[in-house]
Amino acid sequence: MPRPFPDRHHPLPLPAALVALVLAVLTALLGPGATPARAATLTEVTGFGSNPGNLQMFRYVPDGLPAGRPLVVALHGCTQSAAGFYDDTGWNSWADRYGFALLLPQQRSANNATSCFNWFQSGDTARGQGEALSVKQMVDRMTADYGSDTARVYVTGLSAGGAMTSALAAAYPDVFAGAAVVAGIPAGCATSLLDAYTCMNPGRNLSAAQWGDKVRAADPGYTGPRPVVSVWHGSADTTVAPANMTELVEQWTDVHGTDATPEVSDTVAGHPHRVYRDAAGRDVVETYSLTGMPHGQAVDPGTGADQCGIAGQYFPDVNLCASRRIAAFWGLAGTTDPGPDPDPDPDPEPTPACFTATNYAQVAAGRAHQSLGFVYANGSNQAMGLYNIFTTHTLAETAPGYFELADAGCPPQ
Q1: CA distance readout (Å), 174 to 170, 197, 224
Q2: Which of 88, 127, 178, 312 qualifies as a cystine partner to 154, CB 3.0-4.6 A?
Q3: Contact yes or no for 406/354 (Cβ under 8 A)
Q4: Neighbour tally for 194: CB within 10 Å
Q5: Active-site residue 122, yes or no?
Q6: Residues of the chain with CATH 3.40.50.1820
Q7: CATH homologous superfamily for 18-329?
């Protein structure tokens, strides 16, 4: 039997029965204590469908949010709560700033002793079944109540929530436009508790095609667009092995019909960052390997424009805000002006740097890329026309490495 992975900071006594062993294994997948609710605006919703997974539904909708705005689904880790994950990750601040709704499913201890999402049970990850269907029903309730844009629904999660994120992206490609797997595991890795041991550490090593087939099998016959995927993993994670990031890249690049060779290799706040593009030059997979970081989700507490979160165990401060970067990868950052920030920063956001040059020069400077003779802005992927020395555009760097067209003026109008 595979060995359990207890919390190395707070060793647990050796279990004496199978129930205790299961508790240790699942707590190891993400073991921070539940964070008390601190956000009075987070609201529980009942009556959202048959709820075969017996989950709870929480939502946050910024005041005055119009119809047609994006929706982000955020899945907590083991022993955590929806309210704690909402605050600690910083997703609440981005919902206010960029104008999107948040949906936070919550596990019940009746389903799982340590409140982990059951990512390793096929009856909870398959399309139309269990917890996966419960989350889908929650999304349907949000679109019915608030008119959320069904073309801009995204899902993210940490550890057990990250593994469930993989499963949801595979099972519901027609629902989710993007996913972000944080300290998680590829879709289809485990179908039982025993499988979960191996998937966590050391991880499974399959070919890209084998991983891709697991995604395709989750919704047979589907031929539409697949979610773009952002993958985050600490290089010092001893709970979920960093090798899982490599397997996730192989899985989702194969699904998108490209290879696992990055088109962009750079560093952000000292952490290696890679971007993988499809044949059309679109960013479809990205990774952040967080140098020296243990199991958890990266935060960067503070009042700066790109800072977020509350530091704590499993929310390490590594000078990089994962939720902000994920929002940018999905194209959510800077997509709207939702009105005054209810908790404004003491210092105004700096005016983005703008660059006016030919398409050829923009590509040469690393602000854009070309594919099949056409040029696209890095980050936003906005079309800029032909790759030549005659067409000129202005690009604004609205976040590090993220460029938007600003021909009408800087900042972008």
Answers
A1: 10, 30, 7
A2: 178
A3: yes
A4: 12
A5: no
A6: 18-329
A7: Alpha/Beta hydrolase fold, catalytic domain (3.40.50.1820)
Among residues 159, 166, 230, 323, the one annotated as catalytic is 159
Q: Measured in Å, how far apart are the chain's first and last C-alpha atoms?
A: 59
Q: Which residue has the tokens 């891709």?
A: 212
d(CA 354, CA 148) in angstroms, rounded, equals 32
User: CA-to-CA distance for 80 and 56, rounded, in angstroms?
Assistant: 13
285-339 pLDDT tens trace: 999 999 999 999 999 999 999 999 999 989 999 999 999 999 999 999 864 333 3
Q: Determine contact, residues 247/205, Cβ cutoff 8 Å.
A: yes
Comparing CA positions, the residue from 97, 228, 88 lying closest to residue 153 is 228
Residue 34 DSSP one-character state: P
pLDDT in tens, 100-144: 999 999 999 999 999 999 999 999 999 999 999 999 999 999 999
Residue 255: its pLDDT value, please?
A: 98
pLDDT tens per residue across span 2-15: 332 333 333 333 33
Length of the chain: 413
Cα–Cα distance, 308 to 245 (Å, whole number)? 23
User: Could you report the per-residue pLDDT of 143-185, keeping only the tens digit for each?
Assistant: 999 999 999 999 999 999 999 999 999 999 999 999 999 999 9
**Nearest-5° angle of CA 111, CA 122, CA 108?**
15
Report pLDDT digits (tens) over 88-102: 999 999 999 999 999
Q: Which residues of 278-312 are buried (b: 16+ CB within 10 A; e: fewer)?
A: beebebbbbbbbbeebbbbbbbbbeeebbbbbeeb
Instruction: Say whether 257 sits in a helix, a strand or coil.
Output: coil
Find the mean pLDDT for residues 251-261.
98
Collapsing DSSP to helix, strand or coil, 132 comes out as helix
- If DSSP codes are grouped into helix, strand and coil, which group holds residue 75? strand
Task: Using CA atoms of 113, 118, 122, 127 in order, give the dihedral in degrees to the nearest 10.
Answer: 140
Q: Angle at which helices 160-171 and 208-218 pack, to 10 degrees?
A: 70
Strands (E), 4-116: 43-45, 56-60, 71-75, 101-106
